[in-house]
Amino acid sequence: MVSDEPENSIHHATIVELAAKGRIPAIYPFREYVDVGGLMAYSVDLPDSSRRLANLIDRILKGANPGDIPFYQPTKFALVINLKTAKALGLEMPAMLLGRADEVIE
Predict the structure, then answer these.
(1) Domain extent at residue 39
(2) Which sign does the torsion angle of CA 24, 20, 13, 84 carry?
(3) Is 14 among the domain residues?
(4) Domain of residue 86, CATH code
(5) Cα dist. 29→16, 40, 55, 95 in Å?
(6) Rounded-to-integer distance, Cα 66 and Cα 57, Å
(7) Per-residue pLDDT tens digits for 84-97
(8) Is residue 30 part of a domain?
(9) Residue burial 72-106, b: 16+ Cβ < 10 Å; e: rest
(10) Cβ(93)–Cβ(83) under 8 Å?
(11) Exposed, middle or buried by CB within 10 Å (0-12, 13-18, 19+), for 50?
């Protein structure tokens, strides 16, 4: 499992490449990893989180006290699976997992 540290995001293609060379099945923190060949990602819905963040910034800039704004924890998550990578690793993804995925890349 690859962490969501910013340093990793900068080098996401290299991390995916190294996992593939080592034939290591990995789960990644963001969809971008799967787009470049990673096996799967389970992450917060970044567009939704960005909209909420923009809304909070707007409220603060309009004078709201940051201490009075309720803390938000993400509730929308996305599971993306790359079947091409699974096949290359010799993995058969369970139908139940594929059925729960928000997107399956073939």
Answers:
(1) 6-44+76-105
(2) negative
(3) yes
(4) 3.40.50.2300
(5) 12, 9, 24, 22
(6) 9
(7) 999 999 999 999 99
(8) yes
(9) eeeeeebbbbbbebbeeeeeebeeeeeeebeebbe
(10) yes
(11) exposed
